[in-house]
């Protein structure tokens, strides 16, 4: 299983949000390039980079910086936030990003996103479904996690039949940045319903045991953020736990 260290960009610096809330921000690094370099030196094969300003604004805001980071350091980057058009996807890919993360539009405009998957290839796009648990059901959240989509995660996934998408990233917003452990029941249910999808787990990872548990469920990747920034464990330890 791959470990994706997370770099969330807001106002050009590395931050983490609590429960996806833009009014609960912790700043960690003033120099994202230094953090990226450190992650690569510690063995990262992939980095997960998010334009939080773009996610909040609904348009690309930090994509130029993301391109600079990608060009400067030899590592595979998965990145998104504010991706709203095929042009946004193309620009990120052209800048050196290996895989573009598409969030809200994967739920609200599945026909368009399906066309992007077909045009750019399923290896170049990750569908990011950030969910909140409402009345016991996982419901994708939109607009930087501030609005409910009104459909279940299962309905959203049904819009991408087997073979039309490959990479999926699911975040339980209620656990993101909270170090409370991942939503293992949700991850297990996704894997059971859609074994065709390459699943990345996100939200709540706080220990090496969490990483081992995610791997045991059959996930192909885990996004790790705050636990690394707050030294709960090291990246080499996380990579070893995922091996």
Task: Tell me about this structure.
This protein has one domain (2-242): Aldolase class I (TIM Barrel). It has helices spanning 32-41, 52-57, 63-72, 86-94, 104-108, 110-120, 153-158, 184-193, 208-216, 226-229, 235-242; strands at 2-10, 13-18, 21-29, 46-51, 76-80, 99-102, 125-134, 137-142, 147-148, 167-172, 198-202, 221-224. Strand 11 (198-202), helix 9 (208-216) and strand 12 (221-224) form a beta-alpha-beta unit. Helix 9 (208-216) packs parallel to helix 11. With 243 residues, it is of the alpha/beta class.
Distance between the termini: 6 Å
CATH architecture: Alpha-Beta Barrel
Question: Number of helical segments?
Answer: 11
Low-confidence stretches: none
The total of beta strands comes to: 12
Shape designation: globular
**What percent of residues adopt helix (DSSP H or I)?**
25-40%
Fraction of residues in β-strands: 25-35%
Radius of gyration: 16 Å
Structural class computed from helices and strand pairing? alpha/beta
CATH class: Alpha Beta
Domain module count: 1
CATH topology: TIM Barrel
Largest sheet: 8 strands, parallel, barrel
Strand order of the largest sheet: 1-4-5-6-7-10-11-12
Mean pLDDT: 87
Helix and strand string, N-terminal first?
EEEHEHHEHEHHEEEHEHEHEHH
């Amino acid at each position: 299983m791959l470990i994706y260290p997370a770099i969330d960009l807001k106002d050009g610096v590395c931050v983490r949000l609590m429960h996806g809330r833009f009014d609960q921000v912790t700043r960690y690094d003033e120099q994202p390039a230094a953090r990226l370099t450190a992650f690569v030196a510690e063995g990262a094969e992939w980095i997960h980079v998010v334009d939080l300003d773009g996610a909040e604004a609904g348009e690309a805001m930090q994509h130029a910086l993301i391109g600079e980071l990608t060009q400067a350091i030899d590592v595979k980057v998965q990145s998104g936030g504010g991706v709203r058009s095929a042009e946004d996807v193309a620009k990120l890919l052209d800048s050196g990003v290996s895989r573009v993360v598409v969030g809200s539009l994967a739920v609200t405009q599945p026909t368009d996103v399906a066309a992007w998957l077909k045009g750019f290839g399923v290896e170049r796009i990750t569908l990011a479904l950030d969910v909140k648990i409402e009345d016991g059901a996982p419901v994708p959240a939109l607009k930087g996690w501030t609005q409910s989509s009104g459909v279940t995660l299962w309905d959203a996934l049904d819009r991408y039949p087997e073979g039309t998408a490959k990479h999926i990233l699911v975040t339980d917003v209620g656990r993101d940045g909270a170090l409370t452990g991942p939503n293992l029941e949700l991850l297990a249910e996704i894997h059971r319903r859609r074994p065709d999808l390459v699943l990345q787990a996100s939200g709540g990872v706080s220990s090496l045991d969490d990483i081992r548990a995610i791997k045991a469920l059959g996930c192909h990747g885990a996004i790790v953020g705050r636990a690394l920034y707050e030294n709960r464990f090291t990246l080499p330890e996380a990579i070893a736990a995922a091996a």
